[in-house]
Amino acid sequence: MKYTRYDLKRKNDNKAFILMILLVFILAFILGTAIFRLLTGNALGFNRGESNTNNGGIVNNSSKAVDSSSKNTGTSDKIVKYIAVQGGIYQNKENVDSEKNLLIQYGTPFTVVENGKTRVFLGVYTESHGEEIIKSLSEQKVDNSKMLFTISKNDLCDSEITEIVNANLQILNKLSEKDVKAIQTEELKKWCSSLKKVDKDSKNINLLNDIKNHVNNMPKELSKDKAAENYAYIYSILKKMSQK
Questions:
Q1: In sequence order, what are the residues at sequence separation of 6 or more whose Cβ sits closer than 8 angstroms to the Cβ of residue 196?
Q2: Would you state the pLDDT for residue 231?
Q3: R_g of the chain, CA atoms, integer Å
């Protein structure tokens, strides 16, 4: 009787060889895919970086950047608020002097006469700074109230007015500090003169020219005793702006 001989060892070797080949192909595929993704991922990251530079830091396909950009151009940026911190309103000069003597401990008070009455203010501030001043006065049991000015920046002219107001307030608020006696104004003048020219038909062009002239006519050194009249001037500008 003849038998068919099966070489079991050879058969097992063939299976092992085939499995090894398949395993090599699978590993090669996985490794190649990983390397491809890594390389293409780096390339995309670099392209985004170039896009940031070329587009002023805005990534077109980034929702976060779009949201941020929307906020920067939203209506909130077209509105600016200021607070005049008021001590009181009086008809009697003695009461006015008494209020000024009280407030001078906290800053440089100024007065404004309206409708036959004198308003005594501690100062004019940006909204956030003004709220801090009010909180501090209230904690020290000093009676106060606030007058809020809401200014709309409808064009370049309005924007420049508010920027000049901000610059003036920085100087005046600094002058209100006890250890500050005077502040140089040359830098403010140079900055103000370097502002862009605006449309001569702008609604508030007269106010812009007025405040520019005011800055240009400032002395080289603005002393503390001039702070009150400059506060009163800024107050008048803000009142005119808020009424338009």
A1: 156, 160
A2: 97
A3: 36
